[in-house]
Amino acid sequence: KHLGDTIDIHAGGQDLIFPHHENEIAQSCCANNGKPLANYWLHNGFINIDGEKMSKSLGNFRLVNDLLKQYPGEVLRYVILSSHYRSEQNFSKDLLDSAWRSLDTLYGFIRDMQAVEAVVDKHSAGYKALLDDLNTPVAISELYRLAKQANASTGDQRAKLLAELMGIANILGLLQQDPRSEEHTSELQ
Q1: 3-state secondary structure of 8
Q2: Mean pLDDT of the chain
Q3: How confident is the model at residue 184, as a pLDDT?
């Protein structure tokens, strides 16, 4: 009713591929005259908490609202994007603290640069990484590469590199705050 016969993305854990998602595909194709349920199926890896599989029954899960009391939302996003969605991720306080420092490093690169309008270069390595099975870790590494190159450049070249960096960052939802903000001082709580 709300989404039509075919949705863009259907996601779930790797453990749901068989038989759950295969069953969903069969049912929806039969119910919708052969039209696919989803254009893309994304199956994420499991999240571990301090080395142990996250599980409601074990009580070792973390709520976003609780984490937001300790970390900016952008830090949580950076953590999630820093590993491939199909990879297993070990979630810990150390990982969050490291992500905060890494994000602050990126803000440090752009802190003293003149603001530029973000440009999405569809031929850039960062953009191509996102088209390659949503490879966000490679896209993030491109942010660092572009930041280092921009810092070593001047004039129009520096502005071009920064515009490309901000284009990829915008797609990822990173570097959206004022780089001169007090929040980006790596003062971990």
Answers
A1: strand
A2: 91
A3: 60
